[in-house]
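Not sure how to ask, but would you mind making up any protein sequence you like and the tokens describing how it folds?
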Amino acid sequence: REDRLNSLGRLVASVCHEINNPITSIVTFTKLVLSMIQRGAVSEEETANMEKYLALSFREAMRCGSIVKNLLTFARPKSLDAREIDILEVVDTILLLIGHQLESAGVKHTVTLPSPPFTAWGDFSQIQQCLLNLLFNAIDAMPDGGIITIAGGTDEEKDLIWLSVSDTGQGIEPVDLQQIFEPFYSTKTEGKGVGLGLSMVYGIIRDHNGVVDVESEPGKGTTFMIKLPRRPLQDKNSDRFLEKADPTSSGHVS
């Protein structure tokens, strides 16, 4: 819960900036339209401009509404509500919410995902939580800035999708790599986290009958990959995955 609140606090700070920009635009466009109306007679050109300003204000207001809706979805914890989810929408939503966080950290990002439909079977808000944690970890691993790469694909044979988050950061030492999915284990400095983010990711993906993999090399960055079923599994013991999460271990590492 503490780790979730920490993530939520960081997310709110980013969202405040994201909402402030469209609100500033709405105020500016509203003032322009109001000044035209107050002047009385409006020319044809000014009428066209008023329509443009109002359309832009409407678009920005809808953007604010979308940001708030996505924040509320993230902030309200709930039980697993699995359905077909659009992975492209999950990624777009998170990038919209943390845009300011990326910018202020000097982190650029690239996205390489399949064309729609790119869907999985899961809980939208919980998969969103996983992606958020992975992106925050990537940002923290690059204190001097860097590049985050989000990639994905489909394994038709195993009927699953994969989604990876890679960074160009500090990497993880081999001794730490074996323990990163354990609760309360953290390599971050004090105050930066309580060591529950990756444990939460592992638990959520396991509950989705998925797998979490990680590859890292000190000084060369880290890649986390999650694999999710595209459809509900009829048998929870299904071996459709190439590798299943071992309940006695913390995750798959290499």
